[in-house]
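Subject: Re: docking follow-up (S-adenosylmethionine)

Dear J.,

Thanks for your patience while I sorted out the input files. As discussed at Tuesday's group meeting, I've set up the holo structure prediction with S-adenosylmethionine included as the bound ligand rather than trying to dock it afterwards. The sequence and the ligand SMILES I used are pasted below, so you can double-check that they match what you have on your end before we go further.
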Amino acid sequence: MAGELTDIPQSLLERAREEALAAGLTLSHDEGGFYLTDGALLVRGDFMRMRSRIKQNALNRELLVKAARIKGIAAPLSIFDATAGLGEDSFLLAAAGHNVVLCERNPVIAILLVSAIEQARQTPELSETAARMKAEYADGVQSLRDLESAPDVVLLDPMFPERRKSAAVKKKLQLLQRIEMPCDDEQGLLEAAFAAGPRKIIVKRPAKGPYLAERKPDYSLAGKAIRFDCYSLPR
Ligand SMILES: C[S@@+](CC[C@H](N)C(=O)[O-])C[C@H]1O[C@@H](n2cnc3c(N)ncnc32)[C@H](O)[C@@H]1O
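The structure tokens for the complex came back this morning:
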């Protein structure tokens, strides 16, 4: 069947389909990979639409790419994205040459993510970047605790509760928000990131949002809508 992905376990697929159905949605696939739909709108992971952002000049201007720089340590860094979503932030980091492990706990989103990476691996202009991305279906807090060696960077972008209410949220993203849970344990997530012993933790927040778990960062890089709070750790 077109778009069939051999590396997605059947048990995960069944669980994801049930979860989508419970939210009144359908998880399906075509030649472009897996997608989620309510019959009218359709959402899928799609790194192709980000290709203008990974051209070298554009990439160097990305706040997240700047936030991931560590003085005296050259790329490739090892990066652990504990709240992967559809992997767009991690895609920018992988395009900058870093090796990224992406952890997603929602079965539907995990499948959309794996599918998007698989599609990108088969696309010549994206394949090199996609080869540096490895997705896991797991809870980020537990995975951070289980890491055998400390990554250079941990990236956290738990859904900010107010995003759910925002009228500015694109209609397609509202589909995802029907299945995605806002972060219920900010403290646990940030503590697990610190305990994993990275050189740096980067937390993505709305530009005017509060600090994650109310912990003040060492510095922030802020754009119009988004802010990256950075915590530097000694090693
Ligand atoms: C705002 S989205 C991340 C978007 C992502 N930064 C991107 O660029 O596409 C947050 C995601 O984190 C996931 N998430 C929240 N808590 C998690 C946890 N403890 N472990 C793994 N994933 C988690 C949610 O299911 C959701 O898909």
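A couple of observations from a first look. The two ends are 49 Å apart (CA to CA). The chain has a mean pLDDT of 92.

Let me know if you'd like me to rerun anything.

Best regards,
T.
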